[in-house]
Records
---
Amino acid sequence: MSIEIRNVTKRFGSFLALDDVSLQIPDGSLTAVLGPSGSGKSTLLRIVAGLEQPDAGEILLSGEEATAVSPQRRDVGFVFQHYAAFKHMTVRDNVAFALTIRKRPKQEIRDRVEELLELVQLQGFADRYPSRLSGGQRQRMALARALAAKPRVLLLDEPFGALDARVRAELRDWLRRLHEEVHVTTVFVTHDQEEAMEIADRVAVFDHGRLEQVGAPAELYDTPASEFVLRFVGDAVRLGSALVRPHEIVLRRWPSDGAVEVEIERIAVLGADARVELSDGDGDRLSARLRRDEFEDLDLTRGEIVWATASASHRDAKAQQTLR
Amino acid sequence: MGVISTFLTVIVVLPIAALVWESKRDGTHAFWQTISSPEAVGALKLTFGAALIVALTNGVLGTITAWVLVRDEFRGRSLVNAVIDLPFALPTIVAGLTLLAMYGPNSPAGIDVAFTRTAIVLALCFVTLPFVIRTVQPVLIELDMEMEEAACSLGAGRLAVFRRIVLPNLLPGILSGVVLALARALGEIGSVVLVAGSTTHTEVASVFVYNVIQDGLAAEASAVAIVLLAAAFALLLTVGALRFFVTRHERA
Amino acid sequence: MPRRLGLRAIALGYLLVILLAPLGMVFYRTFQHGLEPVWRVLSDHYTVHAFEITLIATALAVPLNTVFGVLCALAIVRRRFRGKGLLNAFIDLPLAVSPVVIGLALYLLYGRTGWFGPWLQAHGIQVLFALPAIVLATIFVSVPFVAREVIPVLREQGNEQEQAAATLGASRWQRFWRITLPSIRWAVIYGVILTTARCLGEYGAVAVVSGRIEGKTETATTLIDDMIQNFQNGDAYAVAVVLAAIAVLVLVLMTVTRPKEAL
């Protein structure tokens, strides 16, 4: 099912959470909504689910106006950051919930729950209560629960936000594979750019309630539409008047047109790469990332003066212009 | 919403309104005349004095008890913990009777305080016992022991740890408990009526109000009742303010 | 260690002097002449009737206050409306104000000269000095307990579980019965126990509005008072022991159902 968000605005008191946002999410896609906290991304997801009402604008599901439809009739699966597990029910009853209230036949419910528990690898846990599951297991249970009634859209609000790094990495991988298997239109909200870039095939970047850019991960990285996107997606440092990626910095031992004179403050070799911390004439610091062979050819030492330029040749000239 | 406000209006608000209206009907002059009669003044003084003593006693002993229940370990601790709620469960008139059995004319311990002011204090201590304990206990359970250990490692002695770390954290809880106990003690009748009787020397405000009603003088009774009502409101506001003050840091 | 023992001694000693010794004495006094006199008092017509009145009032007050308490807690925690502070204050009022004052307030409302008095009299409805007044007083004094227990639990739970249920297709009604109510059930039960205890033990408000007519509007608690006034101490102990036994049962139930620190 495709989702269309048209000119949606939402305020909480005097706080503008969403400012005239329009976004199209194609059927079957896996889209990440990325932004810092307070950027409005969770609010957008909750509006799509019907858990919040927009002050202006509309939501279309499969091309049909759905703004006034209550969450219980939207046919969406929603996964909450803190799982929202039904604490008084077993894992089985949690997963079966959507089917139970739809009064499906017992046998059908049993089979579907078995199938889902297998999908989320919780077969042995059906009779446990959520309090006896780990965070990762609870989140997988919440996913199974959301998928039970075969929703047309799966919405995940910071699904891995409360988990530790190792479990996060595991679940990311798993969500990607799940999407390939189930192929339901999926939107997930995250503040972690790495997570968004890794899992999603499309990323929408939000800041201060506005949609900054939407596109494939590589597109955002290579041709950011704004300074915010450049800074937020991947690392960025300021070289002279321009913002560049650390790996785009080229160091030379002689001055050239537009090159900035810098002093080497610290050197760290990180396997295949080397990080060189620099300070310019104004005392501003920046760090450059060099390939190991490049770095060794230069034979740099601490305290030396060198000249830095950016090799942004591959970047769209127009985008560069808007940045400057 | 409609159900809630209708229920509350019929059950609580209307009677209170009738009481306030009645006390004002004959004007402020009549009100002051009733309230300043020696009997009324005596009863109110006794009530507020006894309630204050009781609230403070429970402030100290209740805090100690809560500490013992949380930090000390001994056999039967959970039993003692359960017994704390007895005054909530026991009808007040029965509480009065138990005290009469133990500290009345036939006291097995040879202590007969029936119909004295000591008996009033004893009865009020009984019924208000759980308040301070039950407000301090959860705070003490939540209180991070590491904070005290940190203070110790910084060279604080036991007394300094208590005064500078434990007490400031417990104080809002203790105060809420004391205020609740005070409110309860001011209005108590059931436990007091048997052990204190109604001699002029031991007549607390609620017993005074009761006796005046029995004499058929509801208007006179309402004057003293208004004082008790106002005190109850003021104390409720105090508890609300304390709660607001405590959660202020957490909300910021 | 001696300090710790000292504090323990103070705490336990205080409980012994104030609570346990007096309670034990009542049981001892009641049964010192055996069971037979106790049974005679308890099977007396007036005693049975007094307990009946108490039970009727409790049976009416507890369900009403349970429904009201749950609705009230939901409104206070989940909704925004004007006058929420006022609602909060009025719910707590019965906890803080003297039962005698409550009794007087009802007396003034339903009495002969009260606001509703003349109308009630004209229609031949007896409220004051009759069962209705006893019931009203009992409801009034036990209003807050369920709401007070449920509110913190609802606050802590948030409403994410209800939102999740909504996205899974549950209607309002289904959300209430399947999610909200089960997750507050222990708090409700605890509140009901407290409400019951308060109803059974109410004295001050009932004493004012019941008229204490023997065999008619006497309740268990006012009966104890009257027995003492008539120097029938032994009889009073027998009635009190029944109420005390109920209180101990209540205490056991409270301990079993006390809302746990963490689920």
Note: Chain C is about 80% helix and 0% strand.
---
Amino acid sequence: MAGETEAAPWVERGLRAALGTGVLGLIVLLWDLGVRGQWVLVFDIKMGYLPPPLDVARLTWDFAFGGVYDDAFSGTLWEHLWASTRRVLGGFALATALGVPLGVLMGRFRWVHAALDPAVNLFRPVPATAWVPLVLLIIGFGGQATIFLITLSAFFPILLNTVAAVREVPPRLVEAARMLGTRPAGVLLGVVVPAATSGIVSGLRIGLGLAWVILVLGEANGIDTGLGSMITLAREQVRTDRVVVGMIVIGMAGFLSDRALVHGLRLLFGRRPLVREA
Amino acid sequence: MSAPRPGAATPPATGPAPSLSRLTRHADAGRVLLEGVTKRYAARGAAGVDAVAGVDLEVAAGEFVAVVGASGCGKSTLLRILAGFEPATRGRVEVGGRPVTRPGPDRGVVFQDYGLFPWLTVAENVRFGLRQRRLPRGQRHRIAEEFIEVVGLTRFADRFPGELSGGMQQRVAIARVLANDPAVLLMDEPFGALDALTRTTMQHELRRLHRETGTTVLLVTHSIEEAVYLADRVVVMSGGAAHGVPGGIAEIVPVTLGEHRDVNAADFNELERRLSELVHAGHRPE
């Protein structure tokens, strides 16, 4: 999309990137100064308890490739990341498979909406944290419980965004399709879904982001591989540095999965204007 | 999308010929009949409001009828009833001798805001209806190409509607319904959103298309000049909910100006003035 300034696009892109990395650099710098100076901030944050950024960088390297400390922790990142990614993708895929079709039906047919809306609104405010004890009792420890929690958490934003997007489909497009001889199923799949794609994609992105949030919660119990379990173990061993490394890796994984989703869809849609550019 | 379909192998002899002439259609397919048509909208806590009441109108196949009248007189309501978007509360509504119960490809609608599918290219928009009617792939492409050429957009076939001007988008919308071989063309202020110059061009083109296709046209418009320039008959509507009386037909005026009409000619202006008076008379509360 066109920028607000008159600068050439590459100049503007460069400036944006420089600004973004500048702020990130500033955060790392403040972090380093805070650790050295043993700052105590609001909420009684004791910066002195944090590992310095350089140590964290070294440990992250070791976590990924080994060769620095060579202990049980070294080089295990990929194993944990792979286990976590599988759970996130599994839960996210299930949530999408349920949330999008159900959302389309709820958005389009008021009887389906009337039937399901009360149930949705009753279950939606129950946070994933409140589900954990019940899930542990009725599913038990393990990957299944994590995938269930992720599915549950990603489902609602996907569903609600889909419902809203479908309700905002211009009635004119439905009229146009019908006067061209389109049957109801064709209207739903050929007009309503494409016209709602932008909103559905917003829901998917929120859902995928939430999936990584819930991952840590799900993997906190009875799982030995996964980034969440790695963080939980590090906390039990009071290894603040490993906790921070885990946080950074999850942050990166969440960020990269969002990019992958957006670029994947862009590849799928080509230059077809299905999604409004952010 | 480009996968070969089973239907692609069948000879294209079954469907309508991709030609502008409509010789194959039943002679009366384009006949429109409204008899005692009333549309009542439910109003909160009241008995309801009649948008139009007791409308009788017969349009012969191939005829071009324009409907004029002040805002709120129910002219768009009539068009929507004919399109099958809304049912009439009372009365008979028939197209081609069959009662109208729902929208269908025999009644192509051109909207003021085009109603194109923004995620489909020009060609895909034009093929949309043909696809719905399960025409073989080869035939779909041939018909679409032909009608895109008819509206002069061959160079823009692979563009998306958002990349085109308003006039071009409306041409796509017209090509889209014509490709579907409708018996009746229902147009609701089709050129209302266009600039004056584009509007004039589009009027010329619509006139030509009507002559070439012989499709019945019902055109709702604000512009009396447009009505006189294009129509065989002009229906003047009056009343409307704002006036406390239901909308209805005040007068039907035949346009006897022949084939070549000059908007600056004396007889043209005379007819325009007369219609204008009728519209304004109907605009005053009785």
Note: Chain B touches chain A at residues 83-85, 102-105, 107-109, 111, 113, 115-119, 128-129, 132-133, 160, 162, 176-177, 180 (CB under 8 Å).
---
Amino acid sequence: MGNNPAPGMNTGCFMRPECTPRNGRLHQEEVKMKKTVFFGALTAVGLVAGAASAATLDDVKARGKLNCGVTTGLVGFAAPDANGEWQGFDVAVCRAVAAAVLGDATAVEFVPTTGKTRFTALASGEIDMLARNTTWTFSRDVDLKFEFTGVNYYDGQGFMVPKELGVSSAKDLDGATVCIQTGTTTELNLADFFRSNNIGYEPVPIETNAEAQQQYLAGACDVYTTDASGLAATRATFEAPGDHVILPEIISKEPLGPLVRHGDPEWGDIVRWSLNALIAAEELGISSTNIEELSAGTNNPEINRILGTEGTLGEMLGLDAEWAKRAIAAGGNYGEIFAKNIGESTPIGLARGLNAQWTEGGLLYTPPFR
Amino acid sequence: MTTITDPPKGQFRVSMLLSDTRYRSLTFQAIALFVLIVAIAYLASNLVRNLEAAGLNISYEFLGNPAGYDINQTLIPYDSQSPHLRAAWVGILNTLLVAFLACMTATVFGVVAGVLRLSNNWLISKLMAVYVEIFRNIPVLIWIIIIFTIMTAVLPSPRAFRGDDPTSTMVLGSMAFTNRGVYIPGPQLGNPLFASVALNWVLVLLFLVGSWFGSHALSKWAHAKQEETGELPTTWYYTLAIWIVPAGILLTIMGLHWQIPELKGFNFSGGIKIGGPLIALWFALSIYTGAFIAENVRAGIQAISKGQTEAASSLGLRPGRVMSLVVLPQALRVIIPPLISQYLNITKNSSLAIAVGYADVTATLGGITLNQTGRAIECVLLLMLFYLTISLSISAVMNVYNNSVKLKER
């Protein structure tokens, strides 16, 4: 993705109408929950929102399958391939957890969720975890009673314009018509950005990404704005991706990560450390190609602890010793997953940027395995 | 002396509540009412309990907080720092605007199509039948999207107007049809004496009211003349003059001139913009509801006995006048009641606006505000209140009109 001037912050609230709630404000999903409460009460169902089943791990083991909530289809992050197999960056997290818990990376039931349904699906127990490029925000974490188990992608909202307009900065967009997906915090970020730069624009609120794309390509709007990774993924589906540029300005923070319900910290730990294992594996040089070799034993105690040849980390999690080894073997380490699904050699073409290891100037920094 | 024979006063016994047909229905109604009240009370208390359990309290304080988002069509001043309440008002006015426009055009489409469907001309009547059946049997949401998609795909984007050899040019040098909307010249007042907008409106309204009285007096005079001589004087050019001349003089004094839209930066500026979403929504609601109104009109006309038409014809009235003077006025009393519900349908269907990005009240208050504040119950209650008020108002106005045209029984 040579054109992306902001290698680093990409992907976010794409096709997820809500991302980045402001502090203390509720969002669509919460709204959905409230509606559910409202209608549930009305129909005397007496729904208890967010009721947590305490032993998700037991449930998953008994079921033999992990129910993982993903997007309804965003190429690179989660989408079924030509054979109907789910592929993508978020999918890989689900597979790693399934491999760690069940020993089988394919024992995953992928549940497509929309921006509106994802949180109710998680709160109601329909899914065990949600890996749907969901922005970690205060109100989701605290008010919606979820637990974010880490960040697998640091993203931010950006702008895409046709090259022929000759625009090189979002500050040149005075008077432009901007297509936005409505119901997201994208529109708030947008209003703030234009206001603080003292320039005007005309918003065109669009319900879905597909429609917005069509409007943008027809020239009904000059600019399309959503998370930078979403822009890259959308652009990759265009006939002539090279005719469009993503502007350097990133106007919001969108840390995306998997999340689980409140009330089952053991399960949250499993998801958190499965993700951390992928990130640590890259840092320590464990990859899908050398993992067998390394699990014979190395001089690095941390690698040994992760791969289960030393210590009792798996036992502490309630799993066996080789949990992390299987998680890493499922799709490779974080870097391999990134390169395979959304990296620079794929049509999505995202650079590592902020998503590089901390040792390489990025933000990926996993706590030590000890 | 009259003897009043009272019916024997039977002693009321409780068992009569069931055994006596005079009381039985009352008993059952009372029981049903009681059960209903208990059921509603149970649901309500359940709702309140659940809301409390979920930590939700009904509060409208959020309406005073800054909305934080922008709206593309605002009939009143608004920016992203305005409160949510103002955003709701912007949405309400947009809803009323599109509902009003669509009611007008749907009525025109409906009456024309309904009358023409009864035409003796085979082609015309069949064409109208096709129009009615196609538009009425496809959901309005699909029409809205189809029209919007066609508009954005067929019309050029403003970029096409740029450059030395643009691929698109403005119609008559003053109107630009783009896929973002239609830009037309806007009126500007040049006379510095008329700087106050409100005063200008009052003046224009005064003149229009004057013209209305003038034309009313003229038609009264024409009718009197017809009663007297049997000749109906041709008055349309007088009427036209009464409407146009005074207003024209006023506007000239005010220094009216037209501001032609110009391509500046990304978009046209100056003049008036009629947004693409408004056009698509307006047109879709009009043709869709027009098809229903056409059927109402046809039903109304066919309800008028054929004798009326024949009698009017035998008086020497031409078919057009038979329709406008004899048949339609009588048909109105059949047409109006279902027409009211069509108007209500338009108003309620306008809530589909978000499909094409039109900022109606469902999109602002019930969409973005609801999402950003999480005050779902409050927003939905407000929306319900708004649509209820509007619908009841439309009904009330139309009922007044219905009373004025219905058969007067004396």
Note: The longest strand of chain A covers residues 254-261.
---
Amino acid sequence: MSHEAGLNAKGLRRDALAERLILFSLSGPAVLLVTMTMLVPVGWLFWLSFLDDAGGFSLEHYQRMLVQPSYGRAFRITFEISFITTAICILLGYPLAYALSQLPRRVANICMIAVMLPFWTSLLVRTYAWLVLLQRQGLINTWGIKLGLWDSPLALVHNLNGTLIGMIHIMLPFMVLPVYATMRSIDRDYLKAAANLGASPTLAFWLVFLPLSLPGLVAGALMVFILCLGFYVTPAVLGGGKITMVANRIATDIELFFNWGAASSLGVVLFILTGIILYAASRLVRLDRFLSGGGA
Amino acid sequence: MSWLRQPATETQITHGGRLWLYILAGLVLLFLMLPSIIVIPMSFSESQYLEFPPREWSLRWYRNYFNSTAWMQATETSFKAAILTMIVATLFGTMAAYGLHAARLRFAGLILGILLAPIIVPVILVGIGVFYVYVKIKLVNSIIGLVLAHSMLAIPIVTMVVSSALKSFDMNQERVARSLGASRLRAFFFVTLPQIRFSVISGAVLAFLTSFDEVIVSLFVSGGSNSTLTRNMFNALRDQIDPTIAAISTLVVILTSILLAISQFLGKNDSRSDSAGNRNRCCNRAAYYGCGFPPALTQDLFCLPCGVKILAHA
């Protein structure tokens, strides 16, 4: 009797395992597609970056990156732009998130639509709009002169200014949303306690509110910085071809020179740098602590 | 102006003392909205010099767009690619999410990690990589190639949206259906799918938009008579400012808004819950990140813009 039950159990377990394997194989098509169009191509590029023109192993592409100043310039400008964009996003995004977090929820939700609006507008549409707004006879220059803010049209586009304005506009929501979520989850009683103990509103903000909102700020800044490193469209259009970030340099290497080794090595370095920053930051701050707490 | 002297918070700062904050916040909000609202009136302008506000109104640029074979062809390509991408990515993504969820195998996390990899690799690297492989297998400038590449970019989004819906679905319901005689397939279609359908549709909409909006991969692998709308727009923007783009932009804004409103509305119906049981809505224009690196292998996944937990690690 017990012997038969044992046999039956074994059969059932085999059936269960077979079924789980069939279920598991449902992920096959997706895995195959991602492998063929992403893992294989990127892996191939990785391989190419270590080959010279004759097909032998060499580090020449990486060496060139160190020797040739144009590559160093591309990396420097990429980091500079990412840094400035992140800094300005903090300066504009933090006060906005703070103001929103103080408003009643219903009013804040309406204002949130404005923050989300850029997310809902295609990247190219926004880039086009900035091109129009920032040109010499554009809205910004016309109104600036009319209001007496400046005398002659400023060069706001097809240069670094245009690139920065476009990138700040794209990245700002990525800063505002996590900061806002963190601020909403801060218990107001801490501020009351600070006031009760004699802190002025300013002091209470610096000593209590700011430290509590810091995780959101760090997460937002990190996100903005990392996403900035890979920008291509904005510098290409609003920079008017004068701003060469790493992604633009990669595209030029392919489109003009068909230099796969050079482009691949740049891509690999960009990818690894992004990974290192993300990893280092995830060691420094526990992002999940802020994220699971805050609900937008 | 007595409102200015009223206290704004419990710590007794007045609205007047904070006026600068309100003004700054208002200006930043204006900065965020400006480009999105400016293109619509722009597109109805008669002049080709892009003056604002326009002196004369006309539908000239819309006529230009609808009468141009190049733009029409690009629009057709974009729609074809987006619809096919939506079908492929939704099908594969949902299958993978369901399979991994139901199989409960130990290395499911690893597979999930592979499926989510396209999110963390810089798009430019994916773009040239796909281009390189397509040159070898002669898929450049073909719709199939474009759809495969776009589906790869959309699969992570569909997989995550559907996985998160399955997390809150009680699989015992499926077991009940099967104990009453339904096959696994029948149980899925009649019991499980109806309850996660909003997430599946929401994932499909996002997959459509992923393809329709995509610039960089399209730039490399589409071309000739199969150029996408985004590729043509990008090239037009680089060369000169043609107001026809304002008309196209307006149409794209309207299409995107309708689709995202649908996905947002549907997302409300099976919205994600966080650890505290609060029901949260994701902003759906998300860049998803794990809390560790590499993401998804070991930890929970969050939408970084809005902080909603997309996927909890089992």
Note: The first strand of chain B starts at residue 272 and ends at 273.
